[in-house]
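Hi there, hope your week has been kind to you so far. It would help a lot if you went through both lines with me. No rush at all, and the record is pasted right below:

***
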Amino acid sequence: MQRLDVVGLGESSIDYVYIVPHLPGAGVPKLPIHSHFSACGGQVATTMAACAALGLKAAYLGPVGSDANGARVREELESRGVDVSRLLVRTADTRYAVILVEEASGDRQVLWQRDERLRLSEDDVREDLFGGARVLHVDAVDEDAAIRAATLASTLGMVVTSDIDTVTTRTPELLAAVTVAIVAEQVPGQLTGEQDIERALRAMRTRHDGLLCVTLGERGSAALDGNEFHREPAVQVEAVDTTGAGDIFRAGMIYGLLQNWPIRRILQFANAAAAVSCTRPGAMASVPSLDEIAANVKWLRS
C-alpha cells in the first residue's frame, strides 16, 4: 500500500437533501419542498474527500452497504482521489440521511438511519489498515472501534484527530485516546458543566494534555494549545448549505497540522475551508480547493 498522510475511520452516507422555506418546529404539520437532490456524505468520508482535494494522500476506512448506494459512495470517493482499498462492504443497505436545509440561512436538520450490520467493532481494527500513515482521524459513531484504533495509532506515534459531536459514557475514554481533540460546540459544556468555551476547554485540560479544539459554527472556532487559548472568527459568507462544514473544517485542521503551522493559522485556514463549503450545496459536493480557501486567507495569498 502507498504511504499515506491520513486515514479516516468512521461514517459515510448517502444524503437526501430537501430545500425548505424554514426548518420545521412544533405546530408545523406541513412544509413545501422547493428543491431536492441526493449526494454522498458522512462525516469521515467527507473529511477524507476534503483532505484529498487539498493534496493529501487520504484513505477511507469505513463501512458501506452492498447496495447501489454503497457502490456510489465508493465511486465518489475514488473519483476524488481517496484510497478505498480499506473500505468495508457489508451485506446491508448503506447508511442514509434525510437533510432539511433552510433556504434563507443554509441551516439544516439531519435525520439518519443505519443498518446495525454496518457497525464497526474492535475486530475490524488492525494496525495494517492505518499503520504508516501520519494521521488517523476517527468519529464517535462506533466508539469501541474508534477507541481501539485511536489507542493503537497513538502508541505508534501517529497524530490522532477526532470528530465528536455527541457525549456518551465512553466519550472521556475516546478523548483520552486521541492526540488532537476536535469537538462540536456543545460537547465541552456537556462534559464539564462550563458554558463558557474557554473555561470548558481549561476544565477538559485536566484530563487531556494535547491540543483541544472546538467548532463554533458561524462564530468560528477556538482551541486550547498548552495553556494558551485562541479564538478565531468565522469567514463571513452567504451560506447556501452548512452540511459538511464541520467535516471540512476538520480536513483543514489536519492539513494545517501536517504543515506544522501555528495553531492560529490552522484555525484561520480551517475556518476558511468550512466557510467556502457553506456557499454550495451538499457535503462532499461542497469540498473546496486549496486555491478557493487561500482566496479567503490573507497570509496564504502573500
